[in-house]
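Posting for a labmate who doesn't have an account.
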Amino acid sequence: MAYFDLKAYLIELYGQDLSQRILHSFTQNKDIGVFVNSLKCNILNFEKELTKANITFKKIDENFYKIAFGDKGILTHLQIFSQGFFYVQNYSSYLCAKNLDPKSDQKVLDLCAAPGGKSINLANFMCNKGELACVEASKERFFTLKNNLLRYGIKAKAFHKDGKIIGRLCPLKFDKILLDAPCSSFAKFGLKLEKNPKELKNIALLQKKLLHSALKALKVGGELVYSTCTFLKEENEEVLENALNSEFKFEFLPLKLENTASIQAFSTHKNLANNARRVIADDFNDGFFMAKIKKL
């Protein structure tokens, strides 16, 4: 069966120069992102431990650090890593949770939560208060999620459920929802991945169903972040355009994407094109697609 030609697709979508930059990012040694778990560790102690281990670091955000690529082996052997004091995470991924901006008195849902990095982010932003629900459909990944929530001291309820039915089970329940949808992962793994057109069509169909479920579970006036680590319009803009033609009324909100290079979405729908963003991969950030929705 014929496989999807990612290289040709990127050139068609981004043009020659930008697509070459993206393709180059797949072979680069990337610096490492680290989110400090403030529920267990304060910033001063974290920096002290890094300095003691001679690890090169730079503070990027309030609880987020860039670590030199060569120090990864030292980093993950530190005792504070096994204790759940920090989580190794790509910065683009962290920005999805940050842009959701959950509050400590809200009901929040992480719909496709495993392995749990964004759930850790959300719990930190909520000061481990409010109600955080973490849903995962895969049994194997669900146990990884549970273990990470325990290791990092996260107060959340984890559910081994199919995300496609959450809207029916919990209509109009949540103030904020994060949907980091299962995807082809092309922006993360690039040319190493092989997907045929049928696989891609099935993934896009799943994403549409998950977004429909999430919008059903979201309160009126509530906010949702939709994200993927793929380049394909079929998994990004077209999923959102499909939702725009559904029963739900919503608008797209601006995103804050500090320390990234990003471009607007590819869509004829102006509100979508102007507010959803495509993060361009480099030596620190993975490629990502993000959109923030407010339900009307």
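Reply:
Got it, the structure tokens are right above this. The mean pLDDT is 96.
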